[in-house]
Amino acid sequence: MSLRNFFSLFSNDLAIDLGTANTVVFARGRGIVVNEPSIVAINKVSNKLEAVGHEAKEMLGRTPGNIVAIRPMKDGVIADFDVTEEMLKYFIRKSHNRRRWLSPRIVISIPSEITQVEKRAVRESALRANASEVYLVEQAMAAAIGAGLPITEPSGSMVIDIGGGTTDIAVISLSGIVYSRSVRVAGNEMDEAIIQYVKRKHNLLIGERTAEKIKMEIGSAAALDEPKSIEVKGRNLIEGVPKTVTITDAEVREALSDSITTIISATRVALERTPPELSADIVDKGIVLTGGGALLQKLDQRISEETGLPVFLAEDPLFSVVLGVGRMLDDVPLLRRVSLQ
What we know:
Elements: H1 3-10, E1 14-18, E2 22-27, E3 31-37, E4 40-43, E5 49-52, H2 54-59, E6 67-70, E7 73-74, E8 77-78, H3 81-95, E9 105-110, H4 116-128, E10 133-138, H5 139-146, E11 157-162, E12 167-173, E13 176-183, H6 187-202, E14 204-205, H7 208-218, E15 229-236, E16 242-248, H8 249-272, H9 276-285, E17 287-290, H10 299-307, E18 311-313, H11 320-330, H12 332-338
Parallel strand pairs: 1-9, 9-10, 11-17, 17-18
Antiparallel strand pairs: 1-2, 2-3, 4-5, 4-6, 7-8, 11-12, 12-13, 14-15, 15-16
């Protein structure tokens, strides 16, 4: 065993992608150790935590009156400070196999247009969850590093990270963000659009888990090669009884069109605001898509058609952000250069 591996056994540094939909934790020397939904179930009577992550997600929409399932992150920012802190504590302990005496160095990714108050809230939540030092890094920067873009070179790289709560768009050069924009339209907004569409068109009430399933199975940004459909169960709003309807990919595309248009418009604005020298680099290298939302069928093709630029999907879009943050644990000079104060 090399000396470096020996030390990595004792290294307890963590990189966290604190997402609206999922929280992913990367432990130095061990890789991804936690990947769970950012959901907490709380007992309203005793104010106690009932479940976190997967267990809490199973309870969404199915809880008795005294238990409520909460998403403490909304649109990429903390909506409920106390619950986020408890969730962070739980995931940090889980990453360290419940050993409480460790106080790790923690790097957390955050959306680019987060306010000073929100930054402070994330930092304080992590410190109270027993971190020794906390670094904050913009999601788009982390995604670019995780996707393997040459961010330290004097050439422009463009990344679009479509998460659960926000879509972060950035142009990066020389380890710095030249332009960044965060729009609060991403995976969750798409799920909500599907819920509203099914309600309006079919008088059927469906839950967010069902909406997410529809999006993942037949959702697309451009016409599919072969039409697809899915059977959806929900509650009929007129008769109040459970009912099954069939929904087609064209309907889902119609439901998602506003969300996709918003993301494409924000991308266009980013391209317009990019200095000409860097624009030339982006024409050569194209745009890289990361995040769970990037997995929407034909999205890369649609953005390419609308911008006239090559668009590529990152190798591991779901984990680009956390892998990027994880890489910084081994490269402290880079971490110091890109972290936010």
